[in-house]
Design brief:
The chain contains three helices and two strands, in the order αααββ. By secondary structure, the chain is mostly helical.
Length: about 90
C-alpha cells in the first residue's frame, strides 16, 4: 500500500513539472476562453432546429457562426464560413 502511494505521488510530481511555455504549446490560440451571457432564464435547448425561446436564440447566435454575416461598415453581406457564393 505504501509503495502504491509513493508511486502515485511520484507520477503526480513528474507530470506537474511543466513550464508555462510547454503548457501554452498544448493550447491552441483559437480554443479556450469564457463566454459570459447574462440571462434571466435557463437555456433548455441549443439544437438549432428546435430553438423556440429568446434565451436559447441569444446563446445559439454566440455559439454558431453563420454562412454569411453583415459587414458593419456598409451593411453588405460578407463571407463568414463560406469563401464565395454565386
Amino acid at each position: 500500500m505504501r509503495y502504491y502511494l509513493l508511486a502515485s505521488l511520484f507520477v503526480l510530481f513528474i507530470t506537474s513539472c511543466v513550464t508555462k511555455d510547454e503548457k501554452k504549446s498544448f493550447i491552441s490560440e483559437r480554443h479556450g476562453g469564457v463566454l459570459k451571457i447574462n440571462e434571466t432564464e435557463y437555456s433548455w435547448n441549443l439544437n438549432p432546429h428546435n430553438i423556440t425561446s429568446q434565451v436559447d436564440k441569444n446563446i445559439a447566435n454566440q455559439i454558431y457562426e453563420g454562412l454569411v454575416k453583415y459587414n458593419p461598415k456598409n451593411l453588405t453581406l460578407a463571407p463568414a464560413l463560406t469563401k464565395y457564393w454565386i
